[in-house]
Amino acid sequence: MISGAIDKNKIRVGVLRGGPSSEYEISLLSGHNVLKNIPERYEPIDILISKDGVWYLGGVPKSPDKILQNVDVVLNALHGKFGEDGKVQNILEKFNISYTGSRPLPSAVSMNKIISKRLFSESDIKTPYYTVFHPKHNVRGKVRELFKSFPQPSIIKPFSGGSSVGITYASNFDTFENGIENALRHGGVAVIEEYIPGKEITVTVLESGDDASLYSLFPVEIVKPASKNYLDYETKCDLNSGMKCPSTLSKDEKIEAQDMAIRAHRSLGLRHYSNADFIVHPTRGIFLIEVNSLPGITENSILPKSLEVSGISLSDFIDHILKLSLKKN
């Protein structure tokens, strides 16, 4: 929150949080953690976007242009729809405001699982076998035909989105059919992937401040509850006791995952930072699941844990990405 008068001698940082997405609560926590850890050289300005898309400054609703007049740079702590799909990025660019994270088109592409998979394939990055189900196909006969022809069990997800919202693990026809209906409700198009058991890891990629080189941090292994077949929304919201870093990967697996994360970041045209999620199968190797262009920065998120193990404080990370955004690269 803003406390007292704004110090005109400091760089004014608007921290965007909230937003009209299913990841509203996570974004609130990410923004809160940023506000707590922002370095002294900056003047933090808390900008809340409500679930219905109204912008607030100091608890007062205002238009984006009025609010953005009060900032020098924006730290984007939004997640999911609007904040991570290029929409808010377009607004910020319209008003010539520097901001953290990726630009509009790469943001939108990284949210689209279908386009992302095509780009990963072009970069020789292995992802799970998949198919796409459109609403026009949503008839019981087509669903049954697909269930019989596609490797089971499977993972069904909306074509766009994050934090495992709208995802279903399907092990029989009923869960398969319900999973497609659920994914279509969340995203309009469903992506059906083969289910790959194995270790779940995340690798953070950071951009250098000098020459835009990319660096990957140590992989974080996520230990999901024994009752879960995949990391669902609730589990991802509270990973504090379920992360291992260093991971139990072999040296070669770590190197391969870090290299894949950098290539995935580059293939999507992202900037500043990202998280890449992988499954490490015991015999089939490493599969890229998705890349998050604005990963969570809550106290229990993977990114702060990865930074900590790498000897980077959250304050230093915030300072770093703000400097990158002010360069307007």
Automatic annotation (TrEMBL):
<dbReference type="Pfam" id="PF01820">
    <property type="entry name" value="Dala_Dala_lig_N"/>
</dbReference>
<keyword id="KW-0067">ATP-binding</keyword>
<comment type="function">
    <text>Cell wall formation.</text>
</comment>
<keyword id="KW-0961">Cell wall biogenesis/degradation</keyword>
<keyword id="KW-0573">Peptidoglycan synthesis</keyword>
<dbReference type="GO" id="GO:0005524">
    <property type="term" value="F:ATP binding"/>
</dbReference>
<keyword id="KW-0133">Cell shape</keyword>
<keyword id="KW-0963">Cytoplasm</keyword>
<dbReference type="InterPro" id="IPR011127">
    <property type="entry name" value="Dala_Dala_lig_N"/>
</dbReference>
<protein>
    <recommendedName>
        <fullName>D-alanine--D-alanine ligase</fullName>
        <ecNumber>6.3.2.4</ecNumber>
    </recommendedName>
</protein>
<feature type="domain" description="ATP-grasp">
    <location>
        <begin position="117"/>
        <end position="323"/>
    </location>
</feature>
<dbReference type="GO" id="GO:0071555">
    <property type="term" value="P:cell wall organization"/>
</dbReference>
<dbReference type="GO" id="GO:0009252">
    <property type="term" value="P:peptidoglycan biosynthetic process"/>
</dbReference>
<keyword id="KW-0547">Nucleotide-binding</keyword>
<feature type="binding site">
    <location>
        <position position="292"/>
    </location>
    <ligand>
        <name>Mg(2+) 2</name>
    </ligand>
</feature>
<keyword id="KW-0479">Metal-binding</keyword>
<dbReference type="Pfam" id="PF07478">
    <property type="entry name" value="Dala_Dala_lig_C"/>
</dbReference>
<comment type="pathway">
    <text>Cell wall biogenesis; peptidoglycan biosynthesis.</text>
</comment>
<keyword id="KW-0464">Manganese</keyword>
<keyword id="KW-0460">Magnesium</keyword>
<dbReference type="GO" id="GO:0008716">
    <property type="term" value="F:D-alanine-D-alanine ligase activity"/>
</dbReference>
<comment type="similarity">
    <text>Belongs to the D-alanine--D-alanine ligase family.</text>
</comment>
<dbReference type="GO" id="GO:0046872">
    <property type="term" value="F:metal ion binding"/>
</dbReference>
<dbReference type="InterPro" id="IPR013815">
    <property type="entry name" value="ATP_grasp_subdomain_1"/>
</dbReference>
<feature type="binding site">
    <location>
        <position position="277"/>
    </location>
    <ligand>
        <name>Mg(2+) 1</name>
    </ligand>
</feature>
<feature type="binding site">
    <location>
        <position position="290"/>
    </location>
    <ligand>
        <name>Mg(2+) 2</name>
    </ligand>
</feature>
<dbReference type="InterPro" id="IPR016185">
    <property type="entry name" value="PreATP-grasp_dom_sf"/>
</dbReference>
<feature type="active site">
    <location>
        <position position="23"/>
    </location>
</feature>
<feature type="active site">
    <location>
        <position position="301"/>
    </location>
</feature>
<dbReference type="GO" id="GO:0008360">
    <property type="term" value="P:regulation of cell shape"/>
</dbReference>
<feature type="active site">
    <location>
        <position position="163"/>
    </location>
</feature>
<dbReference type="InterPro" id="IPR011095">
    <property type="entry name" value="Dala_Dala_lig_C"/>
</dbReference>
<feature type="binding site">
    <location>
        <position position="290"/>
    </location>
    <ligand>
        <name>Mg(2+) 1</name>
    </ligand>
</feature>
<dbReference type="InterPro" id="IPR005905">
    <property type="entry name" value="D_ala_D_ala"/>
</dbReference>
<dbReference type="InterPro" id="IPR011761">
    <property type="entry name" value="ATP-grasp"/>
</dbReference>
<dbReference type="GO" id="GO:0005737">
    <property type="term" value="C:cytoplasm"/>
</dbReference>
<keyword id="KW-0436">Ligase</keyword>
